[in-house]
Every structure is written in C-alpha cells, then in structure tokens.
Sequence to fold (839 residues):
Amino acid sequence: MGYLELKNISKRFGDQIVLDEVSLSVEKGDIYGVIGLSGAGKSTLVRIINGLETPTEGEIFLNNEKIVSPKMKPPRRIREKIAMIFQGFGLLEQRNALENVHLAFEITGEDDKDQAKSKALLKKVTLADKEKNYPSELSGGEKQRVAIARALALRPEILLSDEATSALDRKTSDEIISLLESLNKEIGLTIILISHQIEVVEKACNKVAILDKAKIVENGPISDIFLSPKSEIGKSLIYAGDLKTPLSDKHLIRLLFDGDADSPLVSNIVTKCGILVSIVYANTHTLQGKVYGQLILKLPSYDKDIQKLEKYLSIEHIRYEEVSSNELE
Amino acid sequence: MNWSNLWTATYETLLMTIISSLLAYVIGIPLGVLLFMTSKNGPKPNKWVNIIVGGIVNILRSVPCMLLIIILLPLTRSLLGRGTGAWYTMLIPLFFASFPFVSRMVEQSLSEVKKDEIEALESMGASNLELVKKVLVPESKPSLISGFSVSTISILAYTSFAYDFGAGGLISRAYSFYSAHSGNYLSFPNVWIIILIVLIIVQLIQELGLYIAHKVDKRKVN
Amino acid sequence: MNKRIAVASISLLLGGLLGCSKNSEKTITVAVSELPHAKILNECIKPILEEDGYSLSVTVLDWTIQNDAVANNEYYANYFEHVPYLKTYEGTTKLYAACKCHYEKLCVYASDVNKKTIENGSRIEIVDDNSNIERALKLLEANSILTIKDTAYDAEGSFTNFEAASPNDYVTFSASYSGCRLTCLKESQLCQSLADYDFGIIPGNTALTGLGDSFSSRIVLSEEATEATMSEKANIITVKEDNKGSAKTKELVKAFADSRVGSYISSTFGDSVIYHYENGLETNWLEN
Fold:
C-alpha cells in the first residue's frame, strides 16, 4: 500500500453522487495533482482526507493505519499531521499575520513562548517584515504565504492545497507553487494539489489524477497524462487554449513531439515534403524540465498529402494522430 | 414642563433599554451560537437541536409584546415583588421579547464569517469551543457590535408598552401628555421636547455603535 | 475605561432603585385610567389627602389588569370601573367598592357637525372596553337603532361574551338602520379617528379633551342621566375587601366626600363628568 492510500471513496449527498469509487495511491514526497472541472468532486475529496467530510463508502489509510471510514474521522493526532490551505486563504481578519500563525499553536497546545516559533515560520516564508500587518493590508500572495506558515506550524507530513492559487495572478501563483516545491524538497512534505488551472499542475506535480463527474478517468505520472491524455475531459483540459483559426474541416492531424523546439518542424514539412500546411493550433508544456508539445495542422489537400506526411513523421520519430474538429470545440 | 420628572423619565428609559439589551445578549449570544453551529450550512449541523431551539425562538417572536407582558406578570411578580408600576418591572418582559431576535441577529452575524476561516481551524483539529472562542465570535465582533446598537434601539421602541403598565419612561410621558390633551397636544412644547430627547438617545446609540464597530474592525485598518 | 463604565452603571442602577423606596405607611398608591381619573386624583384629591398627612401616588395602568394588580397588592386601590364591571371580576381575592365618585356622561357625537342624524348605513365607532360598550349599545337601543343579542351575555347575565373584534355579530340593527356598522376602538383614539366615521360614542371626558370647542355642538344623543343611572354607572374606588376597614380606605372615602371635589369637577370638566358621591363602606354593592 502507498503512504496515503484512498480505497474506493464514494460520497453521496442525497441522490447526488459526488465521488464514485475513487482510489488513489500517494507516495511520500509526491506532489500529486488532482484536476477536473468545477464541481467534479475535487474539493470534497480532499475534505474527506482530513475529516471535514466523511465518505459514504470507502476507507483511507495512512502508513497502513486506517484513518477514515464512513464511521470514522481522522483522530486529532492524525489531523495535526495533515495541513490545508485554501483558495480564500482562511486567515482570521481580526488577527495580524503573527497572531494568525500563532493560532495554530493555540490549537495544538504547543508552547510558543514570545511567539518565537511563529516569528521563525513567517521568516521562512519571507514575510518577517509583515508580522504586525492585518490580512486587509496584505496582498493575495502574502496572505497565502501566511496561511502556509500557519500550516507549517503543525509540522505536517501532508499538505492539502485546495485551489490555493486560483485567486492569484499568474506571477504570484508561480511564486506560491515554487514555495511549495521548495518545501517539498526541503522537508519532504507530501502535497496533494487541487486545481482547475493546468499551468499550476504541470509546473509542480509529478503525478496527476483527473476527476470527471465523480470518477477518476485518468491517473498516473504527469508526463504520461500530459503527453497523451486519453479521456475526453483530459484532452479538453490539457489541450485547452486559443484556437488560431476556426475549425471547419474534418481532417486535421495532431503532432506530438518531445525534443528540441528548435527543429524547424513545420518548415521542414513544407520544404522537404512539399506539403502546404496551416497551423490550426499550437501548444507546448514544460514538464519537469522537458519540452513537450503538440501541433494541430490542417492540410488543404488532405487526401493527397496525408500519406506522404505520415511517412515523413514516422522517419523523424514524431508521433501523430488523427483528430476530428469536434474534439477541440 | 416638570424638569425633574423629565429627568426621571429619561433615566428610566435608559435603564430599561440598556439593561434589557445587555441581558438579552447574555442569553442571545450563546443561543445565536447554538443556532448557527447546528444550522444546515453551519459547522456542526444538527437538525433536531436547530428545530427545537429555533422553534422556541420563533414562538417568542410571534407573541405580541402586549400579551407577552401580561402573560409574564406572575413571573415578574414572583421574581421582583411587583409586576407593574416601576421601571424595573419592564426588564423581564423586555428581556423575553428581545432575546429571540437578538439570537437571530447573532446567528446572522456569525453566518457572515467566511467559511474558509472555519474550515481552516476545523482542519487543524479545533474543538467546537475553540471554533466559537477563536474564530466565530472574534471574527464577527464588528457585526455583533453594530447589531447591538440596532437591537438596543428596537428595545427602546418596545419601552412604549411601559405606558400601559405604569412603568414610566419617556414614551409613557409622551402618551400621558397626549391623553390629557388629545385635542391639541402638538401645540405644547412637552411632546416635542420628549421626542427630541428620544432622538438624541437614538442617535447616540446608533453613532456610538457604528463608531466602535469601525474602530474595532481590522479589515479597515487606517 | 472598563472600570469607569462599571462605576457609572452601578450608580445609575442604584439611583433608579433608590427612587423606588418611599415611606409606605402614609402613602396611598392608586392605579387609574388616564382620563379623568388621574387628573381628578392628582389635582384635587392629592392636596386634600396631604392635609391629613397622607401622600398619594398615582399610576396609570391598562384597564384590563387593574383589578388583578390590586388583588396582588401592587396598588392599594384602583379607580377606573363601575360596580357592574367590578361584578365580573373572577379572581380569588375579594375586592370591594369603597365609594362612588363620578359619573361620565356618554353621548353620541357627530363626525360632521352638519349631519347630526343617524341614518341607514352610518358607521359608528365605540370604545373597546366592556365597561363602557354595554352603555354605548344600550344608548343606541334606547333610541331604537338596534337591539343587543342574548349571545352577548353569559349565563349570569354579565356582558362578558361580547367580542370587541366583531361587534356587529352581537347586535341586530332595526329595519331602518340595517346597513349600519359598529367598530370598537381604544378610548384614547376615538377623537382622532372620528373623522373616519359618521358617529362616535365617546365617554364624556375623553370627548371634551379631544374634541375641544366643538364638543357640545357635536352631541347627537345622550345617555339619560337619571339618579338611578348615575348611581349605577358611577366610577368607584376599588380596594381589597380585607382593606375595607383600614385607615387608608377611610381617608380616600373621606377625601371624595369633600365638597371641594364637586366644585373642582364641574369647573374642570363642565357637564361631561358629573360628581356623584356615595359612601360604600356600610353596604356591599357587590352583593345586590
């Protein structure tokens, strides 16, 4: 069994099935992404992990110890090992940054004389100069960092991040994710990252599970999933982006490649194969330092050129697949 | 215009209003906390507790104030020795008339605390008492304070019933004067002076409440 | 800051409570209706009692709870009702009519001074207290406008089944007045509301105070003020039966017997209130 093992977790609210036999296996040190559309059940799932909700069916094990079942919430000593950060930050507005971090010690009962430990934690998230500021005086990124400092006060083994960057701009979001990544490396913090923002997941996670309508539709190492998502929802999430031209033709071809972005792939196709192509869609992702990408090309003279192109692509070891326009709409 | 009677009426109204209001909050805050905690979208939903407590609150709110005072006369007599004829006899009916809506106002203030803040503490393993003491009440402090001034002004309006029960106060004096001069009461200064005093009291309570609520609120630093 | 608030509140509280203790041996507390009772006691009876060393404390109280309040020793006496109404009191403590004091004229007043005939379809406002409703209806009955149904009376003949919320259910209007309607209102609102009705049956002193100068010119019908009527409908001083022989009761009765009361009432209230004194300490009017 994995370090944190979710077995067949189901959750029903009356007639509504929010989670349907969800199973996940998280290893220590993973940064595990959970993505899906809004309302897919992601938030409920993490809340079941730390006891804010109970599952209708299923169990969760931590280090082989059962911590969650329909009749059981995680005991307090386990809860203190699982910290959580939120989209809305969850800071008490009537307390300043230092007092907010100190709150965690008040709950766990740990002694924090002169708030020395709280001060150290704020320093760790580089907010030592904002101790006396209230949340209304802090930016979104600063608030999330205070929330992270507060979470760290628990000395957690697992951090649950529920859309923690969804309310932040791109740059700040990146900063927060970088902070989480460095914590993961430094103290071996296992992180479960919920998001509907693909950029966030692709930056930090090593594994990802895709939730669609209460079920897990894809699950595995991130490179696998991102390179070729199999499910409808996976494709629509990962390939999302602006279409360069409206699609009207039925015959399009998708090229998948990893390797140098330098290779003038498209010009080679034009010059070496003599095929005129238009780029309908282009997108690349940087995953764990490697560049992966896809192009969707439209061939005006599809039937004539497709075989020639496919032969060229096989020689160049570039994967491809046919795609229909309604897939992308 | 008898000025010493006017002064007596003024402090009778103040005592009736402020003491009843404080008493209403002593019970209203715990009840409001209970109503919020057990509500459907609250931290610890509990249908039966919520229905029973909510039911009692609703029943008390539905009984017309005049009838409530009369129904409570035996209780007031056994607790205070008399049921009418003195300002303090109004404290008991005013308390019963107002703690139900105070508890609803407290419930409302608590429900405005952001869900994230409650969940953050719950996820740390906080107990119900810690949730109430460390999050719910402190975070809703500005709202509770401005709610207090709204409630107090409502209670001041209720003191008009003191007239029928000989319990004094400013509004009683106004009614009394009107009854004795019902044809032309507006042409005397008496009623106008009383209205002015009540207005000053209301303004003070309102503005003081808002001022304190604002001062205490760290969401608006500076 | 908190300490100062505490000190201020406590002294305010003490001030309020201390104001309540008085020398009760020589103080007579009376619960009353506002008009004319409170005025008569405060302006006329109070100085008379003070000549004998007694002080008077007058409290205006809703008429529905005055008898209970006396029964519960909150007040020594009350002054608002007449004997027929006192007879309907159902509490366990026995009450007693110490003396008769005054008779309040009851008249029908016209809303529009130029339309002083009651017609078919007239809307009439009357009081909402049982003490005076029966009088008002009997006045209309005497003038053949309506008859009171038996359902308004209980088994003992007391006028207690009447419901002020639906007065028209308890009367039968005569043929030429079949479209008339009655509405019961609080006595203090009768004069203000008269403009919304065609006629109002208003107790004398309320009418005098509220209608001012036009008071007499609006009178359409009056209750016949025979000696018998005045005696029956006179407002009384009520005390607990246990207290009927005590000094305070005797003082009150003595004060009302004073001739100054008669002159005060006629000069203050004109003919809307008539002084009618009878000593009740020898005969119990409740036992007739």
